[in-house]
UniProtKB/TrEMBL annotation:
Residues 98-157 form the Peroxisomal ATPase PEX1 N-terminal C-lobe domain. It comes from Populus alba x Populus x berolinensis. This is Peroxisomal ATPase PEX1 N-terminal C-lobe domain-containing protein. The lineage of its organism: Eukaryota, Viridiplantae, Streptophyta, Embryophyta, Tracheophyta. InterPro entries: Asp_de-COase-like_dom_sf, CDC48_domain_2-like_sf, PEX1-N_C-lobe. One of its GO terms (molecular function) is ATP binding. One of its GO terms (biological process) is peroxisome organization. The keyword Nucleotide-binding applies. GO terms for cellular component: peroxisome. Keywords: ATP-binding, Nucleotide-binding. It comes from the Eukaryota.
Amino acid sequence: MEFQVKHVGGIENCFVSLPFNLIQILESTRRPAPLPPLLTLELRSPSANRHWTVAWSGATSSSSSIEVAQQFAECISLPDHISVQVRAVSNVVNATLVTIEPHSEDDWEVLELNAEQAEASILKQVRIVNEGMRFPLWLHGGAVITFLVVSTSPKRAVVCSGLHLYSDLKVILV
């Protein structure tokens, strides 16, 4: 299954929105089980063999493309209008500890002024991280902080679907 990626403004989370026909295809391959919240986007490129692991929270895109917040796509180097293959990921490695830090001095300054809001927002906006990844966090008033994932535990955790409000996951800001 190949679909085009489309960067969009106005999305303030690190989830993808899927076209309705892709949702139907994925549902038909998973019956009777429900769709998993995690999808792997694999890029076919003559110059690079890349893949991205992203989360889907059930949103339907407004087009026939996979829609991704522009800031998030830029953080993970996911090009606009690129064709990708999509497959549902199973056996996801759950992280128990994720260490993050603001990406720049400006991000530090914004975080210092909005620490409580950032803490409350992070688990609502991000579900997939891996070591070395950058991701945006949207705050009220249009402010965006970019974070860098310094480490995950276990060390080889590729994704952490455990990023949800009532998990045992610890997120440490350094």
